[in-house]
Amino acid sequence: MREFAYVRAASVAEAVGLEGPVTYLAGGTNLFDLMREEVERPERVVDISRLPLSAVEDLPDGGLRLGALARNAHVAADDRVRRRYPVLARALLNGASPQLRNRATVGGNLLQRTRCRYFYDLGAACGKRSPGAGCDALDGLNRGHAVLGASGSCVAVHPSDMCVALAALGATVNLTGPGGDRSVPVADFHLLPGETPDVETVLRAGELVTSVDLPPWPHVRGTYVKVRDRASYAFALVSAAVLLHVENGRIATARIALGGVAPKPWRAYAAEELLAGAPPDERIFAEAARAAVAGARPLGHNAFKIELAARLVRRTLVELV
Ligand code: SF4
């Protein structure tokens, strides 16, 4: 690991007021790996882990605010999350291991980086690590890579489970920085790779995630299902966060987000539109499942993900009704 300067921020204002490039440290579960492998070589690490950003609080509109430093285990165990947002509790409990969930934070989970093996291999060509260097995954071992939203520059997937649930829930990410406060829908927070795979989010220099707001979802059923190579401590091959509300024999609300298939949590908008207003039956579920993977493009080793994702969506919709 390279040498770096270490600063412990005493306040949010101090953290975002520092001059020059900074790398924020919260739980460190991904950052330390990246620094040890020298994939990331920060000059200055700003420790924000003791800032007062770890509360889980009710919002006046019936929603819930998750502090950026709330631990994944803490959020998953929160009674309000379990009762009102079971899709989020399940997604969190499907991520990593109990030890890691005790360290990992909401903000860090949002900002975790891909686990593409070539990204971590300093001898491989990787345009996410070294802009313009190319991409060894395109013709390499790409079984775990993206089938949706990728580009000729990068086919890595976003590894988070939590973010897939946040996408289905329509969460909002709250930020603060040198330019003041702003909020970004989680659907717009992560960026597709295009020609610049090294730019992964809309975060500006010096900005800090302070919290994530969940809108109220009364009466809506939801769940998160993850398919992976082993039963625990593995990233998703494909996952699905699905919300469904049926009223008077018709689907009043449907939200579908996929994980493990794209460079960001993938909202299946076309599938949601098909479902809206339809009777909840096998025919429309099968159509929605196909729509969820429309436009998918396989690489050499991951065509199975397309069928797997469609079947997962269909099965999850059936189970929810
Ligand atoms: Fe790098 Fe993305 Fe290619 Fe992986 S898929 S090697 S992260 S550019």
Largest sheet: 5 strands, antiparallel
The coarse silhouette is globular
Task: Please list the strands of the largest sheet in the order they lie side by side.
Answer: 4-5-8-6-7
Strand content: 15-25%
Mean pLDDT: 97
* Helical content class: 25-40%
Describe this entry's structure for a reader.
- The protein has 321 residues and is α+β, with helices and mostly antiparallel strands.
- The chain has a domain at 221-320: Enolase-like, domain 1 (2-Layer Sandwich), CATH 3.30.390.
- Helix content is 30%, strand content 21%.
- The protein has 13 helices and twelve strands.
- The protein has helices spanning 12-17, 31-36, 72-77, 79-84, 86-93, 98-103, 106-111, 117-120, 162-169, 186-189, 269-275, 282-292, 304-320; strands at 5-8, 23-25, 44-47, 56-58, 64-67, 172-177, 180-185, 208-214, 221-227, 238-247, 250-259, 266-267.
- The protein has a five-stranded antiparallel β-sheet. A four-stranded antiparallel β-sheet has the order 9-10-11-12, with helices on both faces. Strands 1-3-2 form a three-stranded parallel β-sheet, with no helix packed on it.
- The relative contact order is 0.13.
- The mean pLDDT is 97.
- Iron/sulfur cluster binds next to helix 8.
